[in-house]
Specification:
The complex is a heterodimer of chains A (796) and B (144).
Chain A (H helix, E strand, L loop, with lengths): L15 H27 L4 H20 L3 H19 L6 H22 L9 H9 L8 H8 L2 H15 L4 H11 L5 E7 L9 H12 E7 L2 H5 L2 E2 L2 E8 L3 H8 L5 E8 L5 H8 L7 E2 L1 H6 L10 H7 L2 H19 L8 H61 L4 H12 L1 H4 L2 H35 L1 E3 L1 H4 L2 H12 L3 E6 L4 E3 H22 L3 H6 L6 E10 L2 E8 L6 H10 L11 H7 L7 H4 L10 H10 L3 E7 L3 E9 L4 E9 L2 E6 L3 E7 L5 E3 L2 E6 L2 E7 H4 L11 E8 L2 E7 L1 E9 L13 E6 L5 E5 L1 H23 L1
Parallel strand pairs in A: 8-10, 15-24, 19-21
Antiparallel strand pairs in A: 1-4, 1-5, 2-4, 3-6, 7-9, 10-11, 11-13, 12-13, 14-15, 14-22, 16-20, 17-18, 18-19, 20-21, 23-24
Helix pairs in contact in A: 1-2, 1-4, 2-3, 3-4, 4-5, 4-14, 15-21, 16-17, 16-19, 21-22, 22-27, 24-25
Chain B lengths: L1 H5 L19 E5 L3 H13 L3 E6 L2 H11 L5 E5 L7 H11 L5 E5 L4 H10 L3 E4 L4 H12 L1
Parallel strand pairs in B: 1-2, 1-3, 3-4, 4-5
The chains are: A alpha+beta (796), B alpha/beta (144).
Amino acid sequence: MNLELVMSDYLDPNNEELLKDFFGEAQSQVDVLEQNVLVLENDPTNKDAVDEIFRAAHTLKGGSATVQMFELAEFTHGVEDTLDEIRSGSVSLTGPLVDVLLQSIDVVKAMLEERLAGRVYDKDVQPLKDTLKSFLPGAAKGAAKASAKKAPPKSVAKAVSKSTASVKGLTEYEVLELKEAASGRRVHRVSVSFDEANPMNSVGGIQVFAALKALGTVLKTIPEFDRLYEDSYWPVVDYFCLLDKDLDTVTKKCTIREVTTSVEILEVGEDSADTVKVSEAPKVAAPVPASVSAVKSSPADAEPEVVAPAVEEESMEKVLDRREAEHKKSNAANSGSILRVDSKRIDNLLNLVSETVINKATFNQISTHFGEILGDLQSTSLGYKDKLKELFDRFPQYVDEVQKGKSVKELKKEINEEFAKLFTAFDPVEGRLKSTVGIFRGTSQNLGRIIGELHEGVLRIRMVPIAQIFSRFPRLVRDLSKTLNKKINLVIEGEETELDKSVIEDLLDPLIHCVRNSIDHGIESPENRLAAGKSEEGRVVMAARNEGNMIIIEIGDDGRGIDVEAVKKKAIDKGLIHPSKVLSDVEAFNLIFEAGFSTAASITNISGRGVGLDVVRKQIEKLNGNVSIWSERGKGTKFTIKLPLTLAIIQGLLVRVGTEVYAIPITSVVDSHRIKPSEIKIIDNYEVFNVRKDVISLLRLNRLFGIPSDEGNGYHYVVVVGSGDKKMGLIVDSLIGEEDVVIKPLKDRYTASPGIAGATILGDGKVSLIIDVSQLLDLGMRNERLERQRRESRTR
Amino acid sequence: MKTKVDFPTINQKDPDGRRPDGSSYRVLVVDDSMFVTKQIGQILTSEGFEVVATAGDGEQGVEKYKELFPNVDLVTMDITMPKMDGVTALEKIMEFDKNAKVVMISALGKQDLVKQSLLLGAKNYIVKPLDRTKVLERVVSSLQ
């Protein structure tokens, strides 16, 4: 089925926006469902969680029906029924029920995925529905009871007898009673028939009642008001009322489209014409139970709990595959998705923008001021020049006068009187210029502040709480711990920490790897834990926090820790390190991030997926972050991921090589040194130098990038960069300083430039390239290894 | 415009959302689902109504109503919402303004709550799934 074909009238293909909203919202409802089911599993008495779940399912159902995704609406309806029972307390939440609920949520997810891809979910959900139903009370005792619950036979019987009585109209006593209540006014019988096809056909009676109440006084209804209030459908209801309005108005008010089919108003008279009227049409039979309960009473299934154990048997691989596939799909779905932003943040931006507008006005003013001052300056300088010329012109005259015997003193006085103005000619202009420059400085400072805030504000728009991905973990951990038979308590901290949206999206994979690693390899089985004197339940902590303009994410467990010796042995086996190499613990820990060092395959021999942690490191480094690991034998392991707040802007160390300026991401800079050429030593044809106890190989950026520069003179500057255990010194001509650099991607044929991560534009408008440290390290390492292999093969 | 002279207009009907004087009826939409809010908004604005405000839960809805009053003509009120449900919100609004026109938005299976709302003074109700004709018809009838 084509999605467009099934859309209702207002949901035309152009209304994709609405559909997008639906999907967005459905996704969050599903998240709410999942989270709260997990909450309930740990705390079955949590009333809020039940309400939340119910509301989410309910909203989902309503939404999906609107966009005509009926398979989804129907299925969620089934889920809602079960949830309703949980809410009312008649069904308690048990382990198997949680499993089935989670499974149902998965089906809902799958349905949404299919719809998003323009298809309709076509797998059979009946078994699952039946399983769901088997949890409903009374399911075991058969269908009869289920239907009985909604429309108890007793009340049906009573209703029948009562309504047959009313068919014959009012008893004399009742008529009398009415007349008395009317106290002389005329009593009307408003007889309304209702449309059974209305989805809420049991509401009409009350709706008309409410309408009539506004038009007069309702004395009596047949069936009685209490009965109308019950959840059953009445084809015809008679209202006996005192009407304040004319009959036409009343008829109009009582005619409700899709609810009522006909309205008849008669005056209740002595001859009881109405009695005749009703008796010739005995429409009022037994109340028809509302259609909903009829659906519910369909036969209960014969095979409950078939699905639940299946979950348990599912192998870990399957769980993981499913998780991963699901996640990949959702990733695809998320790309280009909608970002919801707190309106306050937008208001803030708007405010800032208006400030810049004011600022611009100030600049305009300043510009006019400058123009005026320039004019003044020009005219002043003209006057000045004239006066000066006059002075020069006068000289011969003065000389004459002196020769004629005029005293110098007198002459001086004369000149002073005439030309003293020359000294102060520029003072007013200078004064004005000074004040304008002052304003200019202030305004430009202001602009700087506003732009800074604006920048921050725009970045904040893209910030989303990390809870968005953390929230997926309870389910993942639950599934994993079930399949692995480990007891795990997941603690999540700092989920309100905010991160750039693009970072968040790429962060999920690495985090899943880490958590999976912790659970699979870190946490021991309950028996082993008890034997080691730990509590049976393993603890995995996921924590996020801000540190400066970095985000720190930690994933820790209290498991067995990393066996350093095993790692070393493995690394030597794999040829990653030389057998003679002395490894510190930290270096050994970091080895597990190497490509080809899949932890699962060897150290613990637990069958797993063998997803290398190298993927984690690659991903994190792609995000300009780094990941480190700490572990203590028997105490646990902790991954620490450091990430920049945003991808768009990094702190860079600007360095100069020849005439070029390069930016090195500050996160990968370890330290920098000024060394004499004599400190550079040669080992294996490589230039190295000593930093404290370490020997660090050097790479001359000018040679690497082919930039002519003078290598001979005096001191060298070395920037030691590193990620994880790898370090390398980059030789540059000079250090310029630290600056925020905005990363611009390289386009077209420059994309594949090794060692370059991007470009940025400096304050003076020059373009500077940003160095990709991890690529440089790889480059250096690879060269080194190749060189070594070549030498070894030569010596043999 | 010239065309008006040349061709008789076929659609003589005025948009439902305008008063005879041409001003829009002002609607407050209370619903916890942004999707539904938007949907109602689209349907109503297409007929000339003006959605003056939206609220995500009952509490907010009541607050908004009090804030807007008397510059609001109609409220659409979802029944199931966090914090304060629609029925309670309706009650609060009716307490504040006994002439308030509130249309309840309900999902199937909430008959009892719908009845309760109608007795509390709701002018009408709309059962989800919503569609254009249904929404317009109920809203317009409630305004009359």
